[in-house]
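hey so u asked for the seq, here:
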Amino acid sequence: MNYDHRFHAGNFADVHKHLVLIALLERLSEKPTPWFYLDTHAGSGLYDLDRLPQDPPPEFRRGFEILWQNSPADPLLARYRALVAQDNPSGTLRWYPGSPLLAHRLARSNDRLAFVEAVPQRQAELKRHLGRRPGVHCRDGFEALLALTPPPEGRGLVFLDPPYEQVSEADRLVETLSRACTRFPQGIFLAWYPWVDTDWTNGLKRRLDRIPRISFLDWWRPRGNGLWGSGLALVNVPYGIPERLERLAPELSSLFRDPPGSTGWRTTWTSGDGRELPGRPRLRG
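ran it, structure tokens below
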């Protein structure tokens, strides 16, 4: 598939990714010591929803706009909505911030961020949207991951969100993530993958599952053409994060009107030594 951030901004997969990203960064900030954040496929950073094609209806209509039109009760959902609202002071949803802007807003003055975007035009747009914040690189994201880790801070989060434009990107994701986890064993890693073809995604998850201390969080929507599910692989999940994210499931199911019996928000969490936690069945699609 070709997952161009520009055309999918604010869709349900972005809701999935960005909720987890916010939860992880806020957990890192509970300790006063600085953390490092690396975004390997950063994109442009900010997206004009009014410029998206309207036929068929843009994907954010069935994604973030649902949260925008409601007042979420869960504090994490409310925090996410408030972060996006900073770009929409008029109260009308026009701009959607990508992961670089969200991370930038959650970072403290002593935290360090690095954003990588391989396409020069998008890298220039990202620099413009981030302002004076340093650490924007125009280079291959997988190569940058190995070059920039381990960080001197000794703690942090790496977010890998490749577009899967090339067949080789899945292979590079598995290989590079495996090597990076060895180089930065205490780091938190978050990698996105799509559900378009069940056999392809299950095959990718089986390969990723060889990485120690990896967990999976999938959000499956009613099936149709194109992207029908969003998946996240997490390495070194911090204590309490599984319970925090699972508390989102009832409200998300209600807001997004998951049909009865649908697969919805599904998790496979592992303990620190790689064992599955009891009571959470492994789901393969």
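The chain has one domain: 5-268. The longest strand covers residues 188-195.
lmk if thats what u needed
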